[in-house]
Amino acid sequence: MTVMRTAAVIGTGLIGTSAALALTARGVTVHLRDQDPDAARTAAALGAGVVDEPPGRVDLAVVAVPPAHVARTLAEAQSAGLARGYLDVASVKGGPGRDLAGLGFDLTQYIGTHPMAGRERSGPLAATAELFEGRPWVLTPTAQTDTEVLNLALELVALCRAVPVVMDAEAHDRAVALVSHTPQLLSSLVAARLQHAEESAVRLCGQGIRDVTRIAASDPGMWMDILSANPGPVADVLSAVAADLDETVRALRAMESADDGKRQEGGAGIEDVLRRGNAGRVRVPGKHGTAPAAYEVVAVLIGDQPGELARLFADAHAARVNIEDVRIEHSTGQQAGLAQLMVEPRSAPVLGVALRERGWSIRQ
């Protein structure tokens, strides 16, 4: 059985540093490299590893650089005999694999991977050893991938406490175009409508627009690297979305008509979009990767003071109610917000009563 004792992480951004932190925390000696020496030193200062060169071959080299630089970085590392096995964590898999073959890379020592985790912030200071816990980590082995390399990759996933998912590289790229890359662009498109909006409109922003535009805060440079490596599949998804948008615009225009028949037809079109959205949302995995459960929401008014959330969770614990999920809706211009506690339906009345008894204001 393969046991990883040493690793090299090339690229100390969010993903690379997070992986290094997880490995170091579990006893693996990690050697850090980055084209920006300050980034590597920052990661080392956070406890992610050391910037010293390894004395010999490491067990696994983890390449965490933008997709356009993956093949060259891997080829240089293999040429130097850095590791027994090599993998990358880029969000696109087909292109790097083809580039490596063109460079004459020994593909028996390589496996493409992609952890489905990230944050709006980038860089080593945004990293955390818990970033991958419970998240899918895609592995794309080929017929050429050596069993030892596959086992090293599986060990990395286990040490990061992620969930391994084996896929074909091209299927992976189509999948992430749908569930990751297109949502990023759509979020950015909606957020772009706010750039020159009237201030009176922006002041009305609530939780819905915050949810939709959250990932629009991501680094444009990083996303240009990703989208440049997967433009075709993303364009295919956006083309289908564009067709839906055209139909939706026509339906909305019809709802403005003085003709009852056209208004009804337009309304039916909008209802169809909303119902298809319901059906698609149901397929998004919920807690622990299972089908999403139907939770009840207990909304609690909380003040903007230190310790309020901790006190709320402690009171929920005292009521012996498990909080399945939580969202916070902030009140514009006020030092207060709503903590939306998602609980099992049978637990909602119990939690509501218990929190009222402890002085909390429960909102419908």
Note down, in words, how this protein is organized.
Residues 5-292 form the Prephenate/arogenate dehydrogenase domain. Its EC number is 1.3.1.12. InterPro entries: 6-PGluconate_DH-like_C_sf, NAD(P)-bd_dom_sf, PDH_C, PDH_N, Preph/Arog_dehydrog, Prephen_DH. The protein has 364 residues and is α/β, with parallel strands linked by helices. It folds into three domains: 6-167, Rossmann fold; 174-282, 6-phosphogluconate dehydrogenase C-terminal like domain (6-phosphogluconate dehydrogenase C-terminal fold), CATH 1.10.3660; 296-363, Alpha-Beta Plaits (2-Layer Sandwich), CATH 3.30.70. The chain contains 13 helices and eleven strands. A seven-stranded mixed sheet has the order 2-1-3-4-5-6-7, with helices on both faces.
How would you describe this structure in keywords?
6-phosphogluconate dehydrogenase C-terminal fold; single chain; 3 domains; alpha/beta; 11 strands; 17% strand; seven-stranded mixed beta sheet; Alpha-Beta Plaits; four-stranded antiparallel beta sheet; 13 helices; Rossmann fold
Topology of helices and strands:
Layout (H helix, E strand, L loop, with lengths): L5 E5 L3 H12 L3 E5 L3 H9 L12 E6 L3 H13 L3 E6 L5 H9 L7 E6 L20 E5 L6 H13 L3 E4 L2 H24 L6 H4 L4 H7 L6 H9 L2 H25 L4 H23 L13 E8 L4 H11 L6 E6 L5 E8 L4 H10 L3 E3 L1
Parallel strand pairs: 1-2, 1-3, 3-4, 4-5, 6-7
Antiparallel strand pairs: 5-6, 8-10, 8-11, 9-10
Helix pairs in contact: 3-4, 6-10, 10-11
